[in-house]
Every structure is written in C-alpha cells, then in structure tokens.
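Researcher: Following up on the earlier apo prediction. This time include the ligand. It's S-adenosylmethionine, with the SMILES given after the sequence.
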Amino acid sequence: MRLYSDLASWFHLLTHPSDYGAEAAFSTRVFEAASATRPQTLLELGSGGGNNASHMKARFTLTLTDLSPEMLGISREINPECEHIQGDMRSLRLGRTFDCVFIHDAVEYMVSHEDLRAALDTAFVHLKPGGVLLVTPDCTSETHKPGIDSGGHDGDNRSLRYLEWVHPPNERTPTYNVDFAIMLEDEDGVVTVEHDHHVFGLFSRDEWHGHLGEAGFELVEVDVEDPYADEHAVFVARRPVNG
Ligand SMILES: C[S@@+](CC[C@H](N)C(=O)[O-])C[C@H]1O[C@@H](n2cnc3c(N)ncnc32)[C@H](O)[C@@H]1O
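Model: Understood. Below is the ligand-bound prediction.
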C-alpha cells in the first residue's frame, strides 16, 4: 500500500496526530477500567504513524510495532522516546509480555479469518495473565457503511487533501475495498494526484467474539463513554489470570 511506503512521508498530513487526543483518552480509560491493577506497559500492533501513541505515551510505556519500516520512521519522528520494532501482527513474537495490547485501525488489514485469528494469537501471547486487549476496527459487518469521506491538512510548506471511497462488502471474501484519491501540493504549489487501493477485513460481532474466545480471551464489558461510538467498533478482552 502506497500510503505506508512511497507516500508514507505524507501520512501526518492525511491524518494528523492532533486529531487523536480524544480517541487516545478513550482507549486509555478502557485499559484502566478493564485492568485489575494500574497498567503500565503497552504493546501496539500496527502502530502506523504513531498518532495514538503520541498521546498515550504520557500514560504508558509504549512498544510500537508495524509492518512498514517507512511508517515506523515517521512514528519515530514524533515519538523518539518510544521503542519501535518492525513486525507483522500475525507472526510477531517478542518473547516478553505486557499489561496491555492495543490494535487500532491497523486490524482492518486482517482480510481473512486466519489473519484475524493470527493477530489475536499474537496479542494473547504478548499479554501477562490478567492483561487487557483493546481492538478498534472501523466497523463490523453490522455497522459497515459504504460512502465517501474527505479530509487532509496543511504542513509547513506542503499540503494534502484526499477523497476516500468506501465500497460495499465483497461477495467471496470477508472484505471490502477502499480507494483513496490523494492530492499532494508540493512546496512550489504544484499539485499531483495519486491513487491507492486498500482491502479491509469485515467480520460480524459474533465472528469477532468467536475468534477472541478461541484465542483464549475472556470478553470484558467496560462502562466507559465512547465519543467515537458511531465511528468504530470496540472489543475489550482479557487474558485469563490462569490462562
Ligand atoms: C492507518 S495505519 C495505523 C495508524 C495508527 N492507528 C496511528 O495511530 O497512527 C495502518 C497501519 O497498519 C500497518 N499494517 C498493515 N498490515 C499490518 C500487519 N500485518 N502487521 C503490522 N502492521 C500492519 C500499516 O503498515 C500501517 O502503518
């Protein structure tokens, strides 16, 4: 995907760290509410540009992991104090455990039941007994909405605007397609248009719960007000204390 490779240096003008404060605060409250003792260490799988991390690092000791070296590079620029490690969330094995594991929208790139289960297995083996997993995909099959979105930001000497086209579910796989038209204005005011095609996984709430249970997790209900209830799905689960 071009957004995470040759276009990665533009990522923070597509989605800016300052847009993530409220969502990062929500995620922090969920981890605190679901943990028996005050959590301190947090592993993020698919941490991307480090936008959530830029807010959560004040509260947690963060280990940030992503498939893309370019994305780790731009996250390091805004989160130099955090540990960054390259790895695929389906196969990463760090050989240590954390109080919390967080998978934000990067879980969208799990495009089969096998992918999703592998990512949940990775989360499980990296949690201490009693540790908490929070996963926030953009939607489930019940809440998926085809349509368009747009946005972008101005940098010091360049700007980006985009149109995001979310397609209906695909028929043969548990996925949907998303196309981005991205306009890049360089320091001379010259605008070029780039296209990037993404495929996102799409699973029902029951399928999510089934995979979490099969991976060994117990589901957790938390009473935390969610300002983004219409914009993402939330799954909170715990590695059993004796699990
Ligand atoms: C939208 S970005 C995540 C942004 C992030 N939520 C933030 O706060 O900046 C999605 C990320 O998922 C990563 N990704 C995609 N497939 C992955 C995989 N199998 N394992 C780890 N990361 C993956 C991409 O490289 C990309 O950086």
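Model: The chain has a mean pLDDT of 97.
Researcher: Noted. I'll compare it with the apo version next.
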